[in-house]
Records
---
Amino acid sequence: MIPEIGNFSLILALLLATLQGTLPIIGAARGIPSWIALAKPVVQGQFVFVLIAFFCLAYSFVSSDFSVLNVANNSNTELPFQYRLAATWGSHEGSLLLWVLMLASWSVAVSVFSKQLPDDVVARVIGVLGLVSIGFLVFMLFTSNPFDRLLPAAAEGSDLNPLLQDFGMVVHPPMLYMGYVGFSVAFAFAIAALLSGKLDATWARWSRPWTIIAWVFLTIGIMLGSWWAYYELGWGGWWFWDPVENASFLPWLVGTALVHSLAVTEKRGSFKSWTVLLAISTFALSLLGTFLVRSGVLTSVHAFATDPARGVFILAFLVIVISCALLLFAWRAPKVGLGGKFDILSRESMLLANNILLLVAAASVLLGTLYPLIIDALGLGKLSVGPPFFEAVFVPIMTPAIFLIGIGPISRWKQMSLPALAIRLRWAFGISVVSALITPFFMGEWKPMVSFGLLLAFWIIVCAFVNLKHRLNNSGEGNLLTKLSKQSRSYYGMHCAHIGVAIFIIGVTLVNSYETEKDVRMEIGSKVTVGGYVFQFNGTSDVIGPNYKAIKGDISVFKDDQFVRNLYPEKRTYNASGMAMTEAAIDTGFFRDLYVALGEPLSNGAWVVRAYHKPFVDWIWFGCILMAMGGITSITDRRYRLKITKKESSAVNVAESERQAEGTPAAVASATTKVELATETTKV
Amino acid sequence: MMRYLMPLAIFMVLAVFLLVGLTLNPRQVPSPLIDKPAPKFQLNQLHEPDKIMSSEDNLGKVWMLNVWASWCVACRDEHPLLVQLANSGIIPIYGLNYKDERNTALQWLKRYGDPYAISIVDTDGKVGINYGVYGVPETYVIDKQGIIRHKQIGPVTVDSLEKTILPLIKELQKQA
Amino acid sequence: MMRQFSDVVKVTIFVFVLFSVFPLSTWAKEAIPVAEDPDIEKRMLALTVDLRCLVCQNESIADSRAEFSNDIRREIREQIKDNKTDKEIVQFLVDRYGDFVLYNPPMKPTTILLWFGPAILFAIGLGSLIVYLKRRRLQIEDVSLSQEQLKEAEALLNEDKKGKNV
């Protein structure tokens, strides 16, 4: 009964999505207020039905209803509660439902948090989101229904893939999908702007916080995935350049470009059509990711069980949505204004250059990811493109981009003088070079690549402080604290995110260069020294888990004859599938991780044990967290919380022209720093 | 206007490749050994372990080398077809018993039938590596000069047999 | 990660440790590396990191624990012992499994676009950036009116320019 309610709810959601995707858009185009007014109730209704469907599926999983095919294939009565819940989105069908739920949630969020926006804009945005929902709901109902029955019901489920039975499965997919789907809001704002023809700085201001939130979710999602792979796969890798990983990285790269381009569009009115193109591209890459994961065109560790029929459907959907969007773009974009004037040397062109670099990086990753498919499609044979290619290509492209991270925030809008910039940055450069050259010695061994990586990281950090110092000097009277509190949150957010990039680079550089590992045969009582830590093997014991049997190793770690802690790596065999899993044990520290995994058993209770010392590895994820925190900080900025009190009613046109004036480059042309801009904004 | 249509054009090219990609199997890796001499081997026979078979023994005839093992589930799927083919006498099939245990291999043949003119034993899989074996079962068609002409990765099916393998054998047998 | 262990288990471990460690007094015994020859192992790992396991879902032979990868690792160790060069070993595998085993695709007519693609993209990106910035300056240069006029003029100007561009 419950699955049928879920199924029925999905059908109702599809009907509502159809209303949502048509009437408000037509209403906005023809100026029919009652159709415009439909947007909000309809989207909220759609959300409620999708939520009901989701709860029905979750209930089926939690209650182990094996008459539902999806549950029978991906769950088991022995599976602990939290994983039965997570199994809801563990399969292709369930993850689609999660995707649709996220989409509905974002749509409802738009309908709730956009009170200051004109109704017709909201109607268009919600309408476009409705069109996207239709696609996914139809896809789910016709090719991948999560509620399909299994008759007769299975006596026992075949269990969730043991790799997925982890905390990572509970948090990683929802975060990642929130990011992927979040970019559909940025997409919807862009399409709405193209439809209305009102592509101005106000549009950028409205869509910017949404884009940043989506970007934050995607950052966290990718970070969690990387961290999960690190501790779960058993050899401590954190990024593999796998097609599916690349599929999440591509929208991140282009999304990052979008976030920066939006900044220019909002502040200076420039790059409008470029920003729109980026918004479309980011969403297109999110959809492409879905296609790659679910169609089986590429081999990946993370792929779902694949089915060409599904591939055809997603591809058709991708082509319809994106080619319509790009056609609309080609039609409208030529009429869009250029925005404010700026010099070749200005913050605008710095940001544009950064955009280009991010896009070239994304295009190169896309090229490497799809190259085997392209060659195969042309009948030229099979080949593989792996980490050596991506590393060789990605680092040189990103190096100038990282150099620009330092300069960009210091340079001025409109125009800047190169000599002045050089004077301000020569110290920053000097300090970065010297410390980058010296620091590797403290790690034990000087390596050119380490110095290079550290140079990039230190450059970002030192430039951020030079920038802050300069800002404070120009912040008028008052002591340091009042000056600090004068700066806008988006200013701090930016630096936080940039320093996150620096921290990330430090982590990657140091762990790649100074990681040590040993693969040893450990008898009971024997020990091995890795990275200055002594690991002593105390033997193993049998452990019975809720749905697995495990052999648990006991390893004591010492440093300079001082006991540090015990580590308990496990080797599990899952009851239902018989699959063996290695559960590494990790001692996480600020400066290093100690990572121990059990290999194969030997005679007399001895085991093959792999022990790693990974310096600074956690900085990789810490850096990502800082980036995400930077994003969150910047959207709490005052100007986004600003309520435009003038509620548009009959005087839509008046308000429109006012908004136009507020956002145009002309009005802000005198504003050379964000401080001035912020004060101006509050006056409005 | 043209400038603004560029993104659409790029996207459409990409979409075409993705569409073609849907019809391909990314896990099917063609062997570079096609049209190359079959790697030489000298291996002990399964039924009579003290006898040795050499790859050169088959020069002058078209033959099939089928890589199989008793632990291989998919081998059971293709096995009836191989038995049928062997009974028809169209082509001699030689079995490469890959990384198997002798007794279970013999029992397996007793149970499912023995289509092989001779089965040879590749216990450590070394000959398998030379032939580029990565997924058992695999089947090679080798011509009179000892050149590999075809490799079937995965089980032989009625379809692959009728459409590819049998016509090829016929043609190869006609050649001098 | 959820790690559950009951007191019973703790006691078991304690007893286990007590009985197995102290009587044997192997306290200071250094564990033996798994590899017979660490140098060979190092070379083998360096090679297999960039080789693809054919039966896995996109894993390197170094990372994979599949039977196939075990065999190839063993084969490579043997070949290193036989004084084969890295190049010969890789060629040996390519001869049998094709370019598919290489994560680092060799420069060939079919991979030229792959290896030079990023550089071409970079050049295109840089080129269009410069062209855009220059053209943009020219388009906006002649506007130096009051701020209100600037806006209107810009709109008109753009339409004009775009018309010519078609």
---
Amino acid sequence: MTAYILQRLIQSVLVLLAVSIVVFLAVYGIGDPIELLVPPQVSAAERAAMIRRLGLDLPVWQQYLSFLGSALKGDLGTSFVHGVPALGLILARLPATFELVLLAMSVAAFIGVPLGLLAGLNPESRPSRAIMAGTILGFSLPSFWKGMMLILLFSVFLGWLPTAGRGETVFILGVPTSLLTLDGLRHIALPALNLAIPNMALMIRLVAAGTTEAMTQDYVKYARAKGVRRRRIVGRHVLRNILIPVVTVAGMEFGSLVAFSTITETVFAWPGMGKLLIDSIYHLDRPVVVAYVMLATLLFVAVNFFVDVLYAALDPRVKLTGDMA
Amino acid sequence: MILSKSVAPTVPDYADTSLRKRVLRRIKNRPTTRGAIVLLGILLLLALFAPFIAPQNPHDLASLSVMDNRLEPGSQGMTGITYWLGTDAQGRDMLSAILYGLRTSLLVGLTSTAGALAIGVLAGLVAAQFGGAVDAAIMRIVDFMLGFPSILIALVLLASIGRGVDKVIIAIILVQWAQYARLMRAAALVERRKEYIEAAVNFGLPTRHIMLKHLLPNSIGSVLVISTISIASAITLEATLSFLGVGVPVTQPSLGLLIANGFEFLLSGEYWIAAFPGIALVLLIMSLNLVGERLRRSFNVRG
């Protein structure tokens, strides 16, 4: 087990290194950051001094090593636009994004699981077909357009909910949250719903497929033969068995929800890290883009690592020795 | 007519024709799927013949009249034409813009899917045929690519290389080839264990011949079935990237960019600039998803 964890850990570090090289070359290698940093009226001598000070006269590999060195110390560069460390800027936006993602996931689970059960128990019935057709719609609506239509309906036509921002926030343990004020909840409702819909469709499909399959299993037949009530069979036996893959997928979807929140945050002007990424791309604020990508990579690599290790720990069939190809 | 046009290319070249017939019959007999196929056919025809159908050429600035900007659907323009779906901020007829936008969206979606398919199939085939270090190297890259959400990779890539139709296509190919490679490798590995391949090897046929003439046609089915759904996700990805401002250029707006242009007028209730291109986009994506989903189920492909 230790050998397996160690091997996966080394793999994860290699992935992070590979990403850092690719991102460094892609973002720093193209174009000249000096053009952005130095005003055109500055003299040639000052310009040269600036290039030297930033280390831009060094060969690429030396620049990369110094980038890597400071990255390991937690310094991912200073934002060109805001003049503060890029990492701190992103971390300050982290709570807003996590709040949105967590609420979206909860909404998806609390609506998706019961609907999926319903559709899976009677797959040929009319409501079930309607639900399954609805999931195709849920997958097909592009996130940004769906967000706009939500704004159009609930804000412009009905005038019920605000269109942008986080609303009033309160601090819990030093972290600002919109979930505990009425104004904040009114602001988070539409973006969270927008983010939740594709995930909800995914949950419904997973639960429905799992339920239909589980109902034909021997343990269900046995329970039925024993005279256990249908309600108890579904609630006690079926639900428990299908929740394992659902929880796994939900965990793995966390990363993609963080990535997709970029779009939702842009539509609803939600001040999270996704909106920061888009703004930084517009303003050519490279250190922030690099820092975001490195942080996102760290997140995905960490999630994958923990999922793999958990699987190995829980499932005796997963081979723990070397060779994973 | 429409049916054979839009479905035939996605049906794998199985030796077993009875399966193909059975599947086709099952597809035709589902009213929803039939509706989706008809809709898809109509959208393809509209995109193909846009220059002949559109009341206006939206790329020709001379034919636009700025006086007609942001008119409501059904309004009469200065030149006497009726704008059935309204006009945008430049006085462009939305109906014409949507027809041309459909062209751009489909062009990007189909080209990038074809490119990703070619690269992915080749990579998967090579991985399955040669195994060992080659297989490990290719699959490591595939796992790496699939570990990240496609939107993030494409977004960061385009942020550094700039916008353009060709660049968007490159970005989508880059994020989509990996899933084909994984599917193709899995299918080819199963196929390689069969006796006819063994016979071909023992017969002394060159490896290239075995790969291209035997392995490829017999294992590409599942990949082609999945590709219908992938066209839908390629189109969605392009629209999203264009909405975020890193996609197609303003001179060749896709449906996604048209929606983005309407975003700023949404709050003042001028809904048609963003809503109508969006409806066209959703119809396109949904018909592709419905057909793809039915194909996937009929052939029992997981992916």
---
Amino acid sequence: MNPLLKVENISKYYGSRLGCKDVNFDLYPGEVLGIVGESGSGKSTLLNCLAGHQEPDTGKVVFDTRADGPKDTVTMSEPERRMLSRTDWAFVHQNPRDGLRMGVSAGGNVGERLMAVGARHYGDIRGTAVDWLDKVEIAEDRTDDRPSEFSGGMQQRLQIARNLVTGPRLIFMDEPTGGLDVSVQARLLDLLRGLVRELGLSAIVVTHDLAVVRLLADRLMVMKDGRVIETGLTDQVLDDPQHGYTQLLVSSVLQV
Amino acid sequence: MSTEYNFAYLDEQTKRMIRRALLKGVAIPGYQVPFASREMPMPYGWGTGGVQVTAACLKPDDTLKVIDQGADDTTNAVSIRKFFEKTAAVAVSEKTEESTVIQTRHRIPEQDLTEDQILVYQVPIPEPLRFLEPRETETRKMHALEEYGLMHVKLYEDIARHGRIATSYAYPVKVEGRYVMDPSPIPKFDNPKMEMAALQLFGAGREQRIYAVPPYTKVVSLDFEDHPFEKGGAPQACGLCDAHDAYLDEVIMDDAGTRMFVCSDTDYCRMRREAGHIGEMGVPLAEDAA
Amino acid sequence: MISIENVSKTFTLHNQNSAVIPVMVNANLRVAAGECVALTGASGAGKSTLMRMIYGNYLTQAGRIIVGELDIVTALPREILQLRRETLGYVSQFLRVVPRVATLDVVSEPMLAVGVARDTAHERARELLTRLRIPERLWLLSPLTFSGGEQQRVNIARGFAHEYPAMLLDEPTASLDVANRETVLSLIEEAKQRGAAIIGIFHDEAARKRACDRQIDVSVYTPRAS
């Protein structure tokens, strides 16, 4: 089995300041990788470099494309990369406002990616949109409502539906449950787990919430000061952390 | 002619600059070419973009016609016509077939135009994606990469809300299979006419953009397979000239709400009445004049 | 099926003057298919630690831990994940699940993960929950709202849902009444009969004697206090 994503020596500097440095990992189909670290550890920079939102200074992000097999997305042409991010990739933002069109109905938000890849039959587009809204537990009678009329949890679920409608194989998530009530978080986590399993999705989840990665991620990468300091199975890293910083991080979590 | 003005008001350098933009626009149909729009002696929104394009196109032997919503006799049309009479001393006309340059706001004449004519549109907002994507950097990229899914989102929203595509003017088109373009706020009734023999030039003064549709260019109105584009049109005939195929204006006749539908293209209506067509509420032309 | 050879484990506490605490030295253990082996020893002797090392939950510093064909000590994370999905089951003392997920789905999940159809998985889950005397009215509720004993039984149902060839059981009969203890013991016997290799920790001596063929005192592998 080939890795879906092969990340080699990714480094990113902001002027002289370090964003992230020498990051390497492979992600296989169906795997969920968690990236944890505190604010400023470089985890969001890394995610943005991986997803093509920022250009890394060095390194490769090789994605196993459907058509041409493994291709470096850093040196890929912009149209090709943008096409990838509309089809095989998905990005779930922490703030739904960054990932949704707030002035467009829920159905239109979900339908946009379909129309972007050439769907031109209104009935079909709407049918698919309604199906996906149902999958993320948004009732059909809310299809024509705008996301601005939705709760935070619903907005986040809508963002997920909008992203998954074109059947992507890799989904990037930046603090997907951040800013949500704990009860809403749980429902979203369960939804994500089910979708990841049923659709065979691979995912990279950036979060500072160790409870989220324990439930969502198979593997874990711990970042500090722009570098990856520890990797491994999620439960192994959390239960038997090897690096001092990870030990500190794990022991700092408040028990409920 | 008042000698204080250069021919057609603008200096020659400016006209050259505009012509270069026009040539680029013609070379890339539907593509919005930035240009250094000048201050004109009229406010934005009164056709400053169209006026600059017209100024750059006019030759001393041209005949100019100016229409606003199809009519030659509205304030805006009259002012612009007078402006060029004064600054370029060109012949002016209200007759479509006599004119070589026609500047228009919000209509395409009913009569077919010819290869010898230029149609200049006044454009308020040239970017068709603007209302969905406010960032200019992003809309430019979307045009460059042909990412036009968003345009259909707008039409999708229409159908979701109204059961049909309710956009009735400034209806987006795809030009020569490449660029999506705002045809300026003409009624969608006029969209099919854009595949024409004449050269079509578009000027947006405030937004500083010029674009063009060369003669016989393919212009397709965007739609869905199950909601195809329909040009629409009134079920009535023109009350004055009995035209069934023209775009009509609704006119309120009295305080009791009596209505009448008449051609918005005044020249077309006149021509038909001269040819003897009489509508339900019309009278023969000679009596009307008397 | 499970083979542990010269296995050692230390904890390094970086935030406490980098204290290195050896917890296991040169442990050896072999469990054949169809066999159940009990780990014994005083509290703190390292029974759970060894179990977690076999599951890949704790890292092992030296030696080999072979489960099926795979050496856990050197395996890649994804190899361990695949092993856990298909081959190696683990019933811990604590239920760890996503909040607000129905008990029926919690129990079905390991089966869905190996591609069992939802209906079939639910059917097996119902059967197990019935055997473990979880009242049907609770099946659609999250087990996190249940009592300790009920949670433990849901955990067992989940652990036995997929027929793993190798299983680790950490105190499966603790806090259970007689009838449920009996059910768990018969589940273990059934697993052995179909050829599962089982390592268990049983506080309850009678249960240990019933379920296990042998027992290993792990305190012989515990380093003497230094």
